[in-house]
Write a structure and sequence with these properties.
The protein has about 220 residues and is α/β, with parallel strands linked by helices. It folds into two domains: about 130 residues, Rossmann fold; about 70 residues, Arc Repressor Mutant, subunit A. About 50% of the residues lie in helices and about 15% in strands. The protein contains eleven helices and eight strands. The protein has a six-stranded mixed beta sheet, sandwiched between helices. Strand 5 and strand 6 form a beta hairpin. The relative contact order is 0.09.
Protein backbone atom coordinates (compact mmCIF):
# COMPACT_ATOMS: atom_id res chain seq x y z
CA UNK A 1 0.00 0.00 0.00
CA UNK A 2 1.46 3.36 -1.05
CA UNK A 3 0.13 6.84 -0.34
CA UNK A 4 1.41 9.67 -2.51
CA UNK A 5 0.72 13.35 -1.91
CA UNK A 6 -0.68 15.36 -4.77
CA UNK A 7 1.21 18.27 -6.28
CA UNK A 8 -1.44 20.91 -5.59
CA UNK A 9 -2.94 19.53 -2.39
CA UNK A 10 -6.58 19.24 -3.45
CA UNK A 11 -9.31 17.95 -1.16
CA UNK A 12 -10.15 14.27 -0.89
CA UNK A 13 -8.26 11.33 -2.27
CA UNK A 14 -8.47 8.64 -4.93
CA UNK A 15 -7.66 4.96 -4.65
CA UNK A 16 -5.87 3.31 -7.59
CA UNK A 17 -6.13 -0.49 -7.45
CA UNK A 18 -3.48 -1.64 -9.90
CA UNK A 19 -0.67 -4.19 -9.74
CA UNK A 20 1.22 -3.08 -12.87
CA UNK A 21 3.64 -0.33 -11.91
CA UNK A 22 3.56 1.57 -15.21
CA UNK A 23 -0.23 1.77 -15.20
CA UNK A 24 -0.30 2.82 -11.54
CA UNK A 25 2.25 5.57 -12.19
CA UNK A 26 0.21 6.83 -15.18
CA UNK A 27 -2.95 6.99 -13.08
CA UNK A 28 -1.18 8.80 -10.24
CA UNK A 29 0.28 11.34 -12.66
CA UNK A 30 -3.18 12.08 -14.04
CA UNK A 31 -4.52 12.55 -10.50
CA UNK A 32 -1.71 14.83 -9.33
CA UNK A 33 -4.10 17.67 -8.47
CA UNK A 34 -5.57 15.67 -5.59
CA UNK A 35 -4.34 15.76 -2.01
CA UNK A 36 -3.44 12.07 -1.95
CA UNK A 37 -3.56 9.01 -4.14
CA UNK A 38 -3.60 5.58 -2.52
CA UNK A 39 -2.18 2.70 -4.55
CA UNK A 40 -3.34 -0.81 -3.71
CA UNK A 41 -1.93 -3.78 -5.62
CA UNK A 42 -4.52 -6.39 -4.64
CA UNK A 43 -8.22 -6.72 -3.86
CA UNK A 44 -7.31 -7.65 -0.28
CA UNK A 45 -5.29 -4.45 0.23
CA UNK A 46 -8.09 -2.38 -1.24
CA UNK A 47 -10.75 -3.99 0.94
CA UNK A 48 -8.63 -3.45 4.03
CA UNK A 49 -8.06 0.21 3.22
CA UNK A 50 -11.66 0.96 2.25
CA UNK A 51 -12.95 -0.80 5.34
CA UNK A 52 -11.20 1.49 7.79
CA UNK A 53 -10.84 4.86 6.07
CA UNK A 54 -13.12 7.68 5.01
CA UNK A 55 -14.78 7.17 1.64
CA UNK A 56 -12.51 8.25 -1.25
CA UNK A 57 -13.53 10.58 -4.05
CA UNK A 58 -13.20 7.79 -6.61
CA UNK A 59 -11.69 4.41 -7.48
CA UNK A 60 -9.65 3.44 -10.53
CA UNK A 61 -9.66 -0.35 -10.60
CA UNK A 62 -7.78 -2.79 -12.83
CA UNK A 63 -10.07 -5.61 -13.85
CA UNK A 64 -7.37 -8.30 -13.55
CA UNK A 65 -5.70 -8.30 -10.14
CA UNK A 66 -3.42 -10.98 -8.61
CA UNK A 67 -6.04 -12.11 -6.09
CA UNK A 68 -9.28 -11.54 -7.94
CA UNK A 69 -11.45 -9.62 -10.35
CA UNK A 70 -11.49 -5.83 -9.90
CA UNK A 71 -14.99 -5.60 -11.34
CA UNK A 72 -16.25 -8.14 -8.81
CA UNK A 73 -14.64 -6.01 -6.08
CA UNK A 74 -16.64 -2.99 -7.22
CA UNK A 75 -19.85 -5.03 -7.42
CA UNK A 76 -19.27 -6.28 -3.87
CA UNK A 77 -18.77 -2.69 -2.70
CA UNK A 78 -22.06 -1.72 -4.32
CA UNK A 79 -23.88 -4.53 -2.55
CA UNK A 80 -22.39 -3.30 0.73
CA UNK A 81 -23.76 0.18 0.09
CA UNK A 82 -20.50 1.81 -1.06
CA UNK A 83 -21.41 4.02 -4.05
CA UNK A 84 -17.97 5.57 -4.59
CA UNK A 85 -17.58 6.37 -8.32
CA UNK A 86 -15.41 3.77 -10.04
CA UNK A 87 -13.57 3.42 -13.34
CA UNK A 88 -12.78 -0.14 -14.46
CA UNK A 89 -9.67 -0.51 -16.64
CA UNK A 90 -8.44 -3.41 -18.75
CA UNK A 91 -6.28 -4.12 -21.75
CA UNK A 92 -7.74 -4.76 -25.19
CA UNK A 93 -6.12 -8.20 -25.30
CA UNK A 94 -7.85 -9.14 -22.05
CA UNK A 95 -11.16 -7.73 -23.26
CA UNK A 96 -10.98 -9.69 -26.51
CA UNK A 97 -10.17 -12.91 -24.65
CA UNK A 98 -13.41 -12.62 -22.69
CA UNK A 99 -16.95 -11.66 -23.65
CA UNK A 100 -16.59 -7.91 -24.33
CA UNK A 101 -20.29 -7.13 -24.23
CA UNK A 102 -20.77 -9.07 -21.00
CA UNK A 103 -17.85 -7.31 -19.33
CA UNK A 104 -19.09 -3.86 -20.31
CA UNK A 105 -22.63 -4.76 -19.21
CA UNK A 106 -21.31 -5.86 -15.81
CA UNK A 107 -19.49 -2.56 -15.40
CA UNK A 108 -22.71 -0.78 -16.36
CA UNK A 109 -24.67 -2.75 -13.75
CA UNK A 110 -22.07 -1.81 -11.16
CA UNK A 111 -22.55 1.89 -12.05
CA UNK A 112 -18.91 2.05 -13.10
CA UNK A 113 -17.18 3.62 -16.07
CA UNK A 114 -14.98 1.56 -18.38
CA UNK A 115 -11.68 2.44 -20.08
CA UNK A 116 -8.92 0.62 -21.94
CA UNK A 117 -5.30 0.63 -20.80
CA UNK A 118 -2.92 2.31 -21.10
CA UNK A 119 -5.05 5.06 -19.57
CA UNK A 120 -5.21 8.33 -21.44
CA UNK A 121 -5.14 11.56 -19.45
CA UNK A 122 -8.45 12.54 -21.08
CA UNK A 123 -10.10 9.36 -19.75
CA UNK A 124 -8.97 10.14 -16.22
CA UNK A 125 -9.99 13.80 -16.53
CA UNK A 126 -13.49 12.80 -17.64
CA UNK A 127 -13.78 10.38 -14.73
CA UNK A 128 -12.57 12.99 -12.23
CA UNK A 129 -15.21 15.38 -13.57
CA UNK A 130 -18.00 12.90 -12.85
CA UNK A 131 -16.59 12.36 -9.34
CA UNK A 132 -16.18 16.00 -8.41
CA UNK A 133 -19.35 17.35 -10.03
CA UNK A 134 -21.97 14.82 -8.96
CA UNK A 135 -25.70 15.32 -9.26
CA UNK A 136 -26.82 17.09 -6.07
CA UNK A 137 -28.46 14.78 -3.55
CA UNK A 138 -31.78 16.59 -3.90
CA UNK A 139 -31.78 15.87 -7.62
CA UNK A 140 -30.98 12.23 -6.98
CA UNK A 141 -33.96 12.03 -4.66
CA UNK A 142 -36.21 13.66 -7.25
CA UNK A 143 -34.95 11.29 -9.94
CA UNK A 144 -35.55 8.27 -7.70
CA UNK A 145 -39.07 9.41 -6.80
CA UNK A 146 -40.15 10.09 -10.35
CA UNK A 147 -38.45 6.95 -11.66
CA UNK A 148 -40.76 5.02 -9.35
CA UNK A 149 -43.81 6.95 -10.51
CA UNK A 150 -42.94 6.34 -14.13
CA UNK A 151 -41.99 2.68 -13.60
CA UNK A 152 -38.54 3.19 -15.09
CA UNK A 153 -36.11 0.28 -15.23
CA UNK A 154 -32.76 0.54 -13.37
CA UNK A 155 -31.01 1.26 -16.68
CA UNK A 156 -33.51 3.99 -17.57
CA UNK A 157 -33.12 5.50 -14.09
CA UNK A 158 -29.33 5.69 -14.53
CA UNK A 159 -29.77 7.40 -17.89
CA UNK A 160 -32.30 9.82 -16.38
CA UNK A 161 -29.84 10.72 -13.61
CA UNK A 162 -27.17 11.63 -16.16
CA UNK A 163 -29.75 13.52 -18.23
CA UNK A 164 -30.56 15.68 -15.20
CA UNK A 165 -26.81 16.15 -14.69
CA UNK A 166 -26.70 17.86 -18.09
CA UNK A 167 -25.46 15.04 -20.33
CA UNK A 168 -27.21 14.16 -23.55
CA UNK A 169 -27.18 11.02 -25.69
CA UNK A 170 -23.54 11.00 -26.80
CA UNK A 171 -22.24 12.02 -23.39
CA UNK A 172 -24.35 9.41 -21.62
CA UNK A 173 -23.17 6.71 -24.03
CA UNK A 174 -19.53 7.62 -23.36
CA UNK A 175 -20.03 7.75 -19.59
CA UNK A 176 -21.73 4.35 -19.47
CA UNK A 177 -19.70 2.68 -22.23
CA UNK A 178 -22.92 1.87 -24.07
CA UNK A 179 -23.81 2.30 -27.72
CA UNK A 180 -25.56 5.48 -28.78
CA UNK A 181 -28.45 3.38 -30.10
CA UNK A 182 -29.01 1.73 -26.71
CA UNK A 183 -28.93 5.05 -24.85
CA UNK A 184 -31.35 6.59 -27.35
CA UNK A 185 -33.76 3.72 -26.76
CA UNK A 186 -33.62 4.40 -23.00
CA UNK A 187 -34.19 8.11 -23.60
CA UNK A 188 -37.17 7.42 -25.85
CA UNK A 189 -38.75 5.21 -23.20
CA UNK A 190 -38.13 7.84 -20.51
CA UNK A 191 -39.90 10.44 -22.64
CA UNK A 192 -42.83 8.11 -23.36
CA UNK A 193 -43.26 6.97 -19.76
CA UNK A 194 -42.92 10.46 -18.29
CA UNK A 195 -45.59 12.00 -20.50
CA UNK A 196 -43.34 14.82 -21.70
CA UNK A 197 -42.93 15.55 -25.39
CA UNK A 198 -39.26 16.58 -25.15
CA UNK A 199 -36.32 15.25 -23.14
CA UNK A 200 -35.20 18.79 -22.29
CA UNK A 201 -38.60 19.31 -20.67
CA UNK A 202 -38.08 16.17 -18.56
CA UNK A 203 -34.69 17.39 -17.32
CA UNK A 204 -35.87 20.96 -16.72
CA UNK A 205 -38.92 19.81 -14.78
CA UNK A 206 -36.92 17.56 -12.46
CA UNK A 207 -34.32 20.26 -11.86
CA UNK A 208 -37.08 22.75 -11.04
CA UNK A 209 -38.63 20.27 -8.64
CA UNK A 210 -35.27 19.69 -6.94
CA UNK A 211 -34.80 23.46 -6.62
CA UNK A 212 -38.19 23.74 -4.92
CA UNK A 213 -39.95 25.69 -7.67
CA UNK A 214 -42.89 23.32 -7.46
CA UNK A 215 -43.70 19.96 -5.92
CA UNK A 216 -45.41 17.92 -8.60
CA UNK A 217 -43.83 18.11 -12.02
CA UNK A 218 -45.35 15.29 -13.97
CA UNK A 219 -48.75 14.11 -15.06
CA UNK A 220 -49.54 10.45 -14.40
CA UNK A 221 -48.75 8.26 -17.42
CA UNK A 222 -51.75 8.17 -19.75
CA UNK A 223 -51.21 4.51 -20.51
CA UNK A 224 -49.39 1.55 -18.99
CA UNK A 225 -45.66 1.42 -19.90
Amino acid sequence: MVVRSGERGGAGYFVVIEDERSDAVAAVAALACWGAVVIAETCADARQWLGRREVPVGLIVDQCLPDGDGLRLVMDLRQAGNLTPALITTRLSVLNAQAPRLLVNLAYRASAGFALKPLEAADVAAFVSTCTHPVPRSRRAVVARNAGRWALTPAETTVLTLLVHGLRCDGIAARLARSRHTVQQHLNRIREKSGFSKLDDVADALIDEADGLYDIVVPPPTSAP
